[in-house]
Design a protein that fits this description.
Rossmann fold, 6-stranded mixed beta sheet, about 25% helix, globular
Length: about 220
C-alpha cells in the first residue's frame, strides 16, 4: 500500500506527502514521508465521550509503587537536568496525577493540565522550566498545535520530557500492542522526534524505548 491517501496533510508537519502504511479490521494508518509520523485519519477517531470513558477506566494511583516506578523512567533522568525549585507542567496528567508528586518530592513545583480532568487554560499563559507529557502524545488529534504550544511555553534552555512508545519496526507494526488502543491515533519514531527537534530548535535525547527529552536551545 503506497498510494496517496484521502487525508490532505500530516497533522504534525502539515506535509501533503502522505502514503498508506497499514490497515486492519478497525482502522487504516497513514504515514507522512516528511516527518515519518504514522497516524490514524479522522474518520476512525473515537468521540470525546467514548475517549473519556476509556480514560475513566484507568486506575493509576499515586500510592501504586509499580506505577511510580513506571513514571520514574521519565522523572529520574529529567531531575538530573534540573536544579531545585524549578517550575514545571504535567501536561495530560490524567485523573490521578502522580508524576507531579514524584517531581515535587524532589523539590520541583508542578502545575497540572488535562482537557478532561484538570482543564485549567491559564497554564497556557505561563512559562515553564520543564514540561512533561507521559503517555499523552499518541492521543493528540492536532500534534502540530500542541507541540507548538508546549515549546512556546518553555523557557529557553527548558526541557520537554515525553514518554510514548516509539515505532521501531515497520514490518511488525500490525502485531504491536500499542495500536490496539483505539485512543492511540499518532505513532512516533525516532525520526519523528528528530524532525521535531530540528523544527523547534531543540536537542533530543533518547532514553530506553519510550522516553525522549528535548532541550530547547
Amino acid at each position: 500500500m503506497n498510494s496517496k491517501s484521502d487525508a490532505t496533510q500530516c497533522p504534525l508537519c502539515q506535509s501533503e506527502n502522505i502514503t498508506s502504511f497499514y490497515e486492519d479490521k478497525q482502522r487504516i494508518y497513514l504515514c507522512c514521508l516528511h516527518c515519518k509520523l504514522v497516524f490514524v485519519p479522522r474518520q476512525f477517531w473515537l468521540s470525546s465521550e467514548k475517549e473519556k470513558a476509556r480514560y475513566d477506566l484507568h486506575k493509576n494511583e499515586a500510592q501504586d509503587q509499580d506505577y511510580r516506578q513506571f513514571l520514574s523512567r521519565l522523572s529520574a533522568p529529567l531531575l538530573e537536568k534540573l536544579t531545585p525549585n524549578q517550575n514545571g507542567l504535567d501536561f495530560g496528567c490524567g485523573p490521578g496525577p502522580t508524576l507531579s508528586l514524584l517531581l515535587e518530592e524532589q523539590g520541583q513545583h508542578v502545575d497540572l493540565f488535562d482537557p478532561y480532568y484538570y482543564n485549567d487554560p491559564t497554564v497556557f499563559d505561563k512559562k515553564y522550566n520543564f514540561i512533561c507529557a507521559t503517555e499523552v502524545m499518541e492521543h493528540l488529534s492536532n500534534p502540530n498545535k500542541e507541540f507548538t504550544s508546549l515549546f512556546t511555553m518553555l523557557h529557553q534552555g527548558g526541557w520537554l520530557g515525553i514518554m510514548t512508545k516509539l515505532l521501531v519496526n515497520d514490518q511488525t507494526f500490525g502485531e504491536w500492542y500499542y495500536i490496539r488502543d483505539m485512543t492511540h491515533i499518532c505513532f512516533y519514531s525516532r525520526s519523528t522526534f528528530e524532525y521535531l527537534a530540528l523544527h523547534f530548535n531543540a536537542e533530543p535525547e533518547f532514553i530506553g524505548e519510550d522516553v525522549i527529552l528535548l532541550n530547547k536551545k
